[in-house]
Write a structure and sequence with these properties.
The protein is of the alpha/beta class. It has a single domain, classed as Rossmann fold. The chain is about 30% helix and about 15% strand. It contains eight helices and eight strands. Helix 7 links the parallel strand 5 and strand 6. It is globular. The chain binds cobalamin (B12). The site of cobalamin (B12) has 37 residues, from helix 2, strand 3, strand 4, helix 5 and helix 7.
Length: about 200
């Protein structure tokens, strides 16, 4: 199975840091940590390529290579995400989406033709997707009611990243937040109980 992971474009905001990136000769502030984590959770005998559209567009060879195109996005990446789903569908590709935006607003990605909605935290819902693919299914929505134990999450597939394009690397230490700020989606997406990746006996 050939999986093309695509990260949509962010609009220019405070977080784009474009002037600073020019000075340090890098293209993007931080890598798509969710997508490289997704790649690590999927079966490792599958093949992966990753395109961060904040660095460059997807080439026709990459579209042609892919069996399934997998997207992750935050709400701010909505416009490019929806356009890229349409691009993939025009090329007859199976499209799978997940991450904060599809989890928050699933109907928006469904309306433009996404085939698989792999929502909530991938540790629980990606295995459901893999089973569906093995059964030969071509669509489905997978949700989780539980929160996973993140100490079992594999190390992200950092090897898929173009390291020289990023100003910094990131690692995930915890998920979930005990506070109740009304502007923030974290408690909705990841719950109110922080779960750390640190093992207690370390
Ligand atoms: C790092 C981060 C950033 C970085 C982004 C770097 C990057 N390239 O990704 C920076 C600092 C730039 C950033 C900025 C912003 N961010 Co931000 N960010 C985060 C943060 C803290 C961690 C995300 C992360 O990397 N997690 C680690 C990975 C491993 O986890 P994950 O992405 O959640 O992936 C898991 C699941 O979501 C799922 N998953 C994710 N993708 C996919 C895809 C598939 C196919 C599947 C199956 C599963 C899946 O499976 C993974 C494993 O369980 C989250 C909050 C949080 N604690 O999660 C907010 C968060 C994602 N950001 C958010 C927001 C709102 C923003 C801003 C718009 C804030 C602002 N107002 O300016 C800006 C936008 C940036 C811009 N340029 O305009 C919101 C998104 C809300 C939403 N529903 O979309 C979050 C959830 C925080 C919040 N306040 O609610 N952010």
């Amino acid at each position: 199975m050939r999986i093309l992971l695509v990260y949509p474009i962010f609009p220019k905001t405070f977080w784009s840091y474009e002037k600073i990136l020019e000075l340090v000769n890098r293209k993007v502030l931080l890598p798509p940590l969710g997508l490289v984590t997704v790649a690590a959770i999927l079966p490792q005998e599958w093949e992966f390529k990753l395109v961060d559209r904040n660095i460059r567009p997807v080439t026709e060879e990459e579209w042609a290579w892919a069996d399934v195109v997998v997207f992750s996005a935050m709400i701010v990446q909505k416009q490019d995400l929806l356009e890229q789903i349409r691009e993939a569908k025009q090329r007859g590709k199976l499209v799978a989406v997940g991450g904060p935006y599809p989890t928050s607003v699933p109907h928006a990605v469904q309306d433009v033709g996404a085939d698989f909605l792999i929502l909530d935290e991938g540790e629980i819902t990606l295995p459901m997707f893999v089973e569906a693919i093995k059964r030969g299914e071509t669509s489905g929505t997978f949700r989780a009611t539980e929160k996973p134990d993140v100490t079992n999450t594999p190390i992200p597939r950092f090897d898929l990243l173009d390291f020289d394009a990023y100003d910094m690397m990131s690692i995930q230490f915890s998920r979930g937040c005990p506070f109740q700020c009304e502007f923030c989606d974290i408690i909705v997406l990841y719950g109110r109980k922080p779960r750390t990746k640190l093992l207690h006996n370390c």
